[in-house]
Amino acid sequence: MSTDTWLVAGLGNPGPGYAGNRHNVGQMVLDLLAGRLRGRFTTSKVQAVTLEGRLGIGGPRVVLAKPSTYMNLTGGPVSGLARFHGIEPDHVIAVHDEIDIPFNTIKLKLGGGEGGHNGLRDISKALGTKDYYRVRVGVGRPPGRQDAADFVLKDFGTVEKKDLPFLVDDAADAVEHLITGGLLAAQQRFHPQK
User: Fold this and answer.
1) Residues in the active site (predicted)?
2) Is 24 annotated as a binding residue?
């Protein structure tokens, strides 16, 4: 098994109709990371588009993946790519939307619950463990009594869109720092200070 290769999965739903949804912020982060690697996603044999590269000169190898399945079927492509590239769950990072933290906030963790996130639940089931990394991109809670599922399937609001590029940029930085510096250092840098 490769200990130098990381699989970074940006969660979301396929197609242009979902591209601007809160639920697709993970894929927005992957698009930015792909730009930093100066590469393009190509279709893989495992229901995903992928890009392989290195973080910096001689840095860790990464496989960026955007599953082309719907969110609740994300586990198959993620586990298939992990098997194909010989990547253990402790080198898998899921980048996803998180309603339980405020918009414009990033938190990182290893393992734990899925918090009702169907994409994470499917990844945990497919990998056979919850012990993979998560870069949680805060999209905030739905207003009033709006259903959470409806909220995450809506585009970001006008005010949010002004800050969204900075949030996506910070989340991409968090992924890179997690890989190159470890979880604790990334948490210390990106978690909000109390």
Assistant:
1) 23 (proton acceptor)
2) no
Kindly report, residue by residue over 118-163, the tens digit of the pLDDT: 999 999 999 999 999 999 999 999 888 889 889 999 999 999 999 9
Domain boundaries, the chain: 5-190
- The β-bridge relationship of strands 48-54 and 61-67 is antiparallel
- The annotation status of 132 as a binding-site residue, yes or no, is no
- Of the residues 23, 85, 117, 177, only one is catalytic, namely 23
**Tokens coding 176:** 């890179």
Note whether 101 and 109 are within 8 A (CB). no
* 117: annotated active-site residue: no
Q: Is the pTM of this model over 0.90?
A: yes
**What is the distance between the alpha carbons of residues 81 and 58, in angstroms, rounded to a whole number?**
22
**What residue type is 149 in one-letter code?**
A
Q: How many whole angstroms separate alpha carbon 36 and alpha carbon 55? A: 9
Pair 65, 50: CB distance under 8 Å: yes
CA atoms of 53 and 63, how far apart (whole Å)? 7
Q: Is 118 annotated as a binding residue?
A: yes
The two structure tokens encoding residue 65: 């993946």
- The answer on whether 72 is annotated among ligand-binding residues is yes
Secondary element (H or E) of residue 161? helix 158-181
